[in-house]
Amino acid sequence: MRTLKRHKRIHTGEKPYVCDICSYSCSNFGYMKVHIRTHSGEKPYACDTCDYRCSNLSNLKTHKRTHTGEKPYACDTCDYRCTQLDGLTAHKRTHIEEKPFACDTCDYRCRHLSSLVTHIRTHAGEKLYACDTCDYRCTEVAKLKRHKRIHTGEKPYVCDICSYSCSRLSRLKVHFRTHSGEKPYSCDKCEYKCTSAKSLKQHKGIHTGEKPHACDTCDYRCSRMRTLKRHKRIHTGEKPYVCDICSYSCSNFGYMKVHIRTHSGEKPYACDTCDFRCSNSSNLKTHERTHTGEKPYACDMCDFSCSRMPDLKRHKRIHTGEKPYTCDMCDYRSNQPANLKTHKLTHMGGKP
Q1: Assigned CATH for 157-238
Q2: What are the angstrom distances between the C-alpha of 191 and each of 32, 186, 270, 323?
Q3: The model's pTM
């Protein structure tokens, strides 16, 4: 009879057990006992395989499946299996696209109640989880775990094709696409395709002209945080990339890749008009202008134009009178390094 009374409360909605600490109420005294432990911090159920402890027997049973690998709940539409009935219920909504949990402040909807609870904190500004190493706070314990890896250096996700490892599963998924060649994200304004939503968002800044990242030292702005970090090295002089063959160092990993080719002799860029090959795409573009006759760099003081930016800079010194190259033996100055080299021969008894 007692069990029947409890069951009838499902239909009547009666919740006679009320917490005297918060507003929680329930239909079953057993649920109330478990709830009280959220206030007391009591965790009487302990795993005999690891240090895990919890406040109710059901959670302990679910936890033990992480050790046994047991996944008793199976989807009848696909091969998905999981350790909890709640997980299966949420998964099934991916097939019917049901999102029953709705935010009453905005249009957000989701499949999990826990996701809604987390979302609501974004409106309240509530950040319950705090890092014990820095000032970082967040709305989810999963985010805090990911953040802590910044301090520990832990990279638990490892690629089984190469040596790449990372701190987040989402990054490993994106990395796998470098092996598979998959580029699921495409721009709706051009033919650009990429491996991640983040890269696509940054790319779209090219079309919109949006440059949200600003340098705090000069007026430079750009569409990508990574580009801003590289730019800031101009001001700091930081050169974190060091060649392990010679003393060369640089601020950009791309420059280092090109430099390594000076040691390996690799020239992967080939001209399709002649036999010219080179170690970087910039040099190939410049070379190709010898075939096309293109001279994109024009002087704004005369009719001079050329195929390379360094040539334009040298040319402009004719107009400005700038002579940055100086002899360390006399007062001679020149606007070109070749002229200085010829001049120095006069000091060594050579004939220029």
Answers
A1: 3.30.160.60
A2: 58, 7, 24, 46
A3: 0.43
